[in-house]
Design a protein that fits this description.
The protein has ten helices and no strands. It is an all-alpha fold. It is a multi-pass membrane protein.
């Protein structure tokens, strides 16, 4: 006997990524709300946010110093791309954290209309929507994990492989991202500390974006599923007043059916508005920052860089474009279903 899918099946991956950065995006319906987060959750969250803001400030200082002195302009332009990436990730983390009460109410209402029984789920064609959502979320998460760990590990791998292990060429100690430092960390133990700080910040920003985007896709997929179900029910409904011997009884059944459908549709419209109220501003910032990131990355690819750097830039450009496309695609699907 096949097992019915659960509401949480749409959000397993998003919940996993949120847990790794210490965020609980919403209170689970039917689960007792914790009065306070655990020490581990608080430590992971606040250490990640503080570290991310430190790296962001040092990147901004690096760009300012570079343009003031007229030095390292190409590196400063690259750093502007990193700044945009951090801003997108942090804004999405901030708004989900701040809008948790609204998001919790939204999820509670979405759970209430979620089809629980297996036979009802077949009517909704829920398994198809779940498969589609899983493919998209896994693919997008994998793409961003490849992106961030390519950037996080490239400098260290190059240093250890070519200089320390093979001894084929001198690479020198480099950090994943360009930040301002008021001391010389080369050939010093603080190099490894700074490297961890950079990698941790990169992971935090990327995870904030991944979790927010795939959670949004999961919400949108479920609302779209409900809209399509309404369309299916209306298309296949047989008017009772034309078939019933008792016209009054048939008319009463038709009116009851229409009333239920209208209430159902209004509920979905309300849920769509709540979803927009939580994600509209961070998505606006996402589009703005991603546009700058795409421009900066595209510019860097045209001025001539080394092949390995070109591969990294292409991966960055492709990931940013995929993110914008993903959001636009689901937004359009939701509008069409509505």
């Amino acid at each position: 006997m096949k097992k019915a899918a659960t509401f949480d099946d749409f959000f397993k991956l998003a919940s996993f990524f949120y847990r790794t950065i210490g965020i609980e995006p919403y209170d689970e319906p039917g689960v007792e709300v914790k009065k306070s987060k655990s020490f581990a959750e608080n430590f992971i969250f606040y250490s990640g946010v503080i570290n991310l803001n430190y790296v962001l400030i040092m990147e901004i200082v690096y760009v300012a110093v570079a343009f003031i002195r007229g030095e390292n302009i190409l590196e400063a332009i690259m750093c502007l791309s990193y700044i945009g990436f951090v801003i997108v990730g942090e804004s999405k983390m901030f708004f989900v954290f701040r809008k948790k009460p609204i998001l919790s109410k939204f999820v509670k209402r979405l759970v209430e209309i979620f089809p629980q029984e297996f036979e009802l789920q077949k009517t909704y064609n829920l398994s198809s929507y779940l498969r589609q959502s899983s493919r998209v979320t896994i693919g997008f998460a994998l793409l961003y994990m490849i992106l961030i760990w390519t950037y996080n590990l490239y400098a260290m791998t190059q240093y250890l492989l070519y200089e320390k292990w093979l001894g084929s060429r001198v690479v020198g100690q480099q950090l994943p991202y360009y930040t301002y430092a008021w001391w010389d960390w080369h050939d010093h133990w603080t190099y490894y500390l700074l490297y961890f700080i950079h990698a941790f910040a990169g992971y935090t920003s990327a995870t904030g974006q991944i979790a927010s985007d795939i959670m949004l896709c999961g919400f949108a997929t479920q609302i779209i599923m409900h809209f399509h179900y309404i369309s299916h029910v209306l298309t296949n409904y047989k008017v009772k007043v034309d078939e019933a011997k008792d016209k009054q009884a048939g008319r009463s059944q038709d009116i009851t059916f229409l009333k239920d459908i209208i209430e159902y549709h209004n509920c979905l419209l309300d849920l769509s508005e709540q979803l927009a109220s939580v994600f509209s501003l961070p998505l606006l910032l996402n589009f703005s920052a991603s546009s700058f990131v795409i421009c900066f990355v595209g510019f860097q690819m045209t001025i001539g860089v080394e092949p390995d750097t070109l591969v990294k830039l292409f991966l960055f450009l492709f990931s940013s474009t995929a993110q914008v496309y993903l959001i636009c695609h689901y937004s359009q699907m939701l509008m069409d279903a509505n």
